[in-house]
Specification:
Blueprint (H helix, E strand, L loop, with lengths): L5 H10 L3 E6 L5 H6 L8 E6 L24 E3 L2 E2 L6 E8 L15 E2 L8 E2 L2 H7 L2 E11 L1 H8 L5 E6 L5 H6 L3 H7 E9 L11 H10 L2 E8 L10 E8 L4
Parallel strand pairs: 1-2, 1-9, 2-3, 4-8, 6-7, 9-10
Antiparallel strand pairs: 5-8, 10-12, 11-12
Length: 246
């Protein structure tokens, strides 16, 4: 399966030489690697956001080292959520770094039985990993995304916002005010479970689609990983496009 954002990047390339992007949940900077297949680095102003850029290990088999700050024009070591003011939260880092989160895992919702549609399916080794909290970081700064935008992209089009916030994706969108969404943002991509949430408060796909439609954002492209024989995870990446011309 190809990159979920590739068609949106190609669409942007037809109209813009330089673009502004925000990457919420920067992690390994895979989003930026995708983007650089289409745009030259010097033509992208990028804001990267991730609370675990400092998560390193010298142990064999330990957590993957995140040193992604050098890949961004601005890198913020913080979290984003639908909060009214800047605050702080406890962040849970587990041995599967891709599911470290501010949110509480719903362990009863997880199962390694692939045909149990009442549960979120993961391979058993993945479940074992994400049950294992490696570290708890207290007092991690948490911003509304609107605050980040006001500070670092106060003017112009925000061509792409990628969100991968492990249970907080829709809440991150909700932390952007309506005027910014309507008049300045072109594309937003989020990750969401198809039917069963993994985290407390996580929105499933149809909830996300319905909310985005209420803000005049339509589905541009989606990748359902249940359709991928090499993955089979019951979740999707969904790319939304602003219905208004910018």
């Amino acid at each position: 399966m190809g990159y979920v954002n590739a068609s949106a990047f190609a669409f942007l390339k037809e109209s813009y030489e330089r673009i502004n992007v925000i990457d919420v949940g920067a992690a390994r900077a895979s989003f930026m690697n995708e983007l650089w297949h289409v745009f030259r680095r010097e033509n992208v102003f990028s804001v990267g956001i991730d609370p675990i850029n400092h998560h390193t290990s010298d142990k064999p088999g330990g957590p993957i080292v995140h040193k992604t700050s050098v890949d961004y024009s601005v890198f913020l070591q913080c979290g984003v959520d639908n909060v009214g003011v800047i605050t702080s939260r406890t962040f849970y880092m587990n041995s599967d770094d891709q599911t470290s989160s501010f949110s509480e895992l719903l362990l009863d919702n997880l199962s390694s039985v692939e045909d149990d549609e009442s549960k979120f399916w993961y391979p058993q080794d993945t479940i074992d990993k994400i049950k294992n909290i490696e570290n708890v970081v207290d007092d991690v700064a948490v911003y509304p995304l609107q605050e980040v935008i006001d500070q670092h992209l106060p003017e112009g089009i925000i061509h792409f916002i990628k969100i991968d916030a492990e249970g907080k994706d829709l809440e991150v969108v909700k932390s952007i005010n309506d005027e910014t969404l309507k008049s300045r943002v072109k594309f937003i991509t989020i990750e969401c479970p198809n039917k069963v949430p993994r985290f407390k408060g996580e929105s499933i796909k149809m909830e996300c689609i319905n909310y985005m439609k209420s803000k005049n954002f339509n589905v541009f492209y989606q990748m359902n990983y249940e359709d991928d024989p090499s993955n089979r995870t019951p979740m999707s990446d969904v790319v939304f496009v602003n219905g208004e011309d910018l």
